[in-house]
């Protein structure tokens, strides 16, 4: 009901803005009688304007819902919740077909009441080893009816294939009668890891912000056995604010040697959300990670390749909502990481984040995010070749969407990254990287989308490292299927030409191996990449997940072709 009142206020504001715009757009050099007539006509068309606003609001809400679901597919492992959302969305579509957009929007509001997305962009996990914290949110978002629990069996296989050719050229000998010694070789590795797992979920509470949830997951495979235990508590503070505590414990023991025997990790997260007004909120949080390895080197000492460590991240954010899914957010993070050995890796980091999402209309949206990182290694090494060197980095990403018609539109995604190191060295050069991907989108119907675009990237380094400068360019094709009642499909195919313009070439047009010992890494190549993601709720109990990625790099001078294939197949059964 609160969300409905907020929606009514937003729509009222839009109506006022529409009337102001219509007033501003009147001619100024007309007779007052004509202006009076136009004014009367504008107010007499209020109902028409309201219908247009309801229809625009419906279009924006549908787009926002679909994009949110595509970005949070991991939260839909509960088939009951997915079926209920599909039913509600179908009801909304039926009312929209009869031009009753007011009722259609009410059904969409009901869906959001079920999902209750937090939109905690500032609380997204940091990079490195804490990425798996997303799993803490995998627990079902379905409002609890006092107590319920679910069981799930899963089985599948992970398959990978890697092939790397190495060609370092030839070494001339002093004796003219001896042939040159070739350093060519090929590394080939293929493997598959079948697995079986069981998952239990428990949920007790009276609402989304007043609940206790937990999840237990055990997985057994040919290569390792692992387990997870998650727990989450949500409690309200007054009528608007709330707090949350989450804890996740994960452990893995390897049967086959991957350089380590076993490890465990515990992650704790405490969040506070203060809803000052309906449009302004303030978030505070702290995340603590503790990781331990059971691995010793040949001297029975802790291996520096896998050192124990702890990581603490303090976070704060302020957010201002504009309505229609638009918001402005500013955040801050302070990260502290310390290792038991390898003290040179210890660091502290300060980050300032800014985010803007502007859904100006049904046909236009703009999303900008800026992340400024200042990292200081607390135990710097005197060696100038050390890779642990203080730096600052600014990363700006953007995403713009513009619909020309209901069926045709355009999207542009881009990134701009600048990194500067405190100590300039050949091992860590300063660089500037940017990439852009414009694409035309064609909507075949409400479920299918196909895109045709071009990808371009450029990275420049300091002068003494200019041989590593490169650019990429090539076509991109995407195919997406979105059926809220059970199928999510994303397919992407790209072919790029990667060129290193500052690498010297010989008379035959091939890269000169004498220019750098790293010629395998800095030679012109053509790359083909195919990625596939599929989630299919076959029935109310069966779900199929497929993740595949195929990369094929072909070097122009045969200095190191490589192929990498990864396929993951997962079939689960809920009972």
List its salient traits.
51% strand; 20-stranded antiparallel β-barrel; two-stranded antiparallel sheet; globular; 22 strands; 5 helices; 575 residues; alpha+beta; disordered N terminus
Strand content of the residues, in percent?
Answer: over 45%
For the largest beta-sheet, the strand count, sense and barrel status come to: 20 strands, antiparallel, barrel
Which residues form runs of ≥5 with pLDDT under 50?
A: 1-52, 117-144, 170-182, 511-519
How far the N terminus sits from the C terminus, by CA atoms, comes to 34 Å
Provide the succession of SSEs.
HHHHHEEEEEEEEEEEEEEEEEEEEEE
> Quick one: how many beta strands?
22
Q: What's the mean pLDDT score?
A: 76
Shape annotation: globular
Task: State the helix count.
Answer: 5
Structural class: alpha+beta
Helix content: 10-25%
Q: C-alpha Rg, in Å?
A: 28 Å
């Amino acid at each position: 009901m609160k969300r409905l009142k907020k929606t009514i206020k937003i729509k009222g504001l839009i109506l006022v803005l529409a009337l102001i715009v219509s007033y501003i757009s009147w001619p100024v050099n007309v007779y007052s009688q004509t202006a009076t007539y136009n004014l009367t006509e504008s107010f007499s068309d209020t109902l028409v304007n309201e219908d247009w606003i309801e229809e625009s609001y419906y279009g924006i809400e549908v787009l926002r819902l679909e994009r949110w679901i595509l970005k949070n597919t991991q939260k839909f492992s509960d088939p009951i919740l997915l079926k209920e959302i599909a039913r509600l969305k179908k009801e909304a579509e039926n009312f929209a077909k009869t031009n009753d957009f007011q009722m259609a929007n009410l059904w969409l509001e009901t869906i959001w009441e079920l999902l209750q997305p937090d939109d905690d962009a500032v609380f997204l996990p940091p990079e490195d080893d804490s990425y798996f914290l997303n799993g803490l949110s995998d627990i079902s978002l379905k409002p609890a009816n006092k107590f319920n629990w679910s069981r799930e069996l899963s089985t599948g296989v992970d398959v990978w294939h890697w092939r790397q050719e190495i060609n370092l050229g030839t070494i001339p000998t002093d004796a003219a009668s001896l042939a040159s010694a070739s350093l060519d070789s090929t590394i080939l590795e293929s493997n598959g890891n079948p697995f079986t797992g069981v998952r239990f979920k428990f949920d007790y509470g009276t609402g989304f912000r007043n609940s206790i949830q937990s999840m237990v997951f055990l997985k057994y495979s040919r290569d390792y056995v692992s387990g997870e235990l998650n727990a989450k508590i949500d409690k309200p503070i007054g009528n608007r604010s709330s707090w949350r505590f989450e804890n996740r414990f994960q452990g893995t023991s390897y049967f086959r040697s991957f350089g380590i025997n076993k490890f465990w990790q515990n992650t704790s997260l405490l969040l506070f959300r203060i809803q000052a007004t309906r449009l302004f909120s303030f978030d505070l949080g702290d995340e603590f990670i503790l990781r331990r390895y059971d691995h010793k080197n040949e001297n029975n000492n802790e291996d520096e390749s896998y050192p124990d460590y702890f990581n603490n991240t303090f976070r704060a954010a302020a957010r201002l909502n504009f309505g229609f899914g638009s918001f402005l957010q500013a955040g801050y993070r302070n990260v502290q990481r310390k290792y038991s050995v390898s003290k040179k890796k210890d660091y502290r980091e300060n980050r300032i984040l800014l985010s803007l999402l502007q859904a100006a209309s049904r046909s236009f949206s703009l999303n900008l995010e800026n992340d400024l990182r200042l990292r200081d290694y607390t135990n710097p090494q005197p060696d100038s070749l050390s890779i642990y060197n203080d730096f600052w980095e600014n990363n700006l990403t953007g995403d713009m969407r513009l619909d020309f018609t209901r069926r045709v539109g355009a999207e542009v995604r881009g990134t701009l990254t600048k990194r500067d190191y405190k100590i300039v060295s050949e091992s860590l050069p300063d660089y500037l990287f940017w990439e852009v991907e414009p694409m035309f989108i064609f909507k075949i119907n409400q479920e299918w989308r196909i895109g045709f675009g071009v990808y371009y990237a450029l990275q420049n380094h300091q002068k003494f490292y200019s041989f590593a400068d490169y650019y990429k360019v090539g076509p991109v094709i995407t195919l997406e299927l979105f059926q809220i009642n059970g199928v999510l499909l994303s397919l992407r195919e790209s072919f790029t030409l990667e060129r290193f313009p500052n690498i010297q070439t010989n008379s035959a047009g091939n890269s000169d191996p004498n220019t750098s010992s790293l010629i395998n890494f800095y030679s012109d190549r053509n790359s083909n990449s195919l990625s596939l993601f599929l989630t299919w709720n076959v029935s109310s109990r069966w779900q199929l997940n497929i993740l595949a990625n195929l990369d094929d790099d072909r070097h122009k001078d045969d200095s190191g072709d490589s192929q990498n294939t990864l396929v993951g197949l997962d079939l689960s059964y809920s009972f």
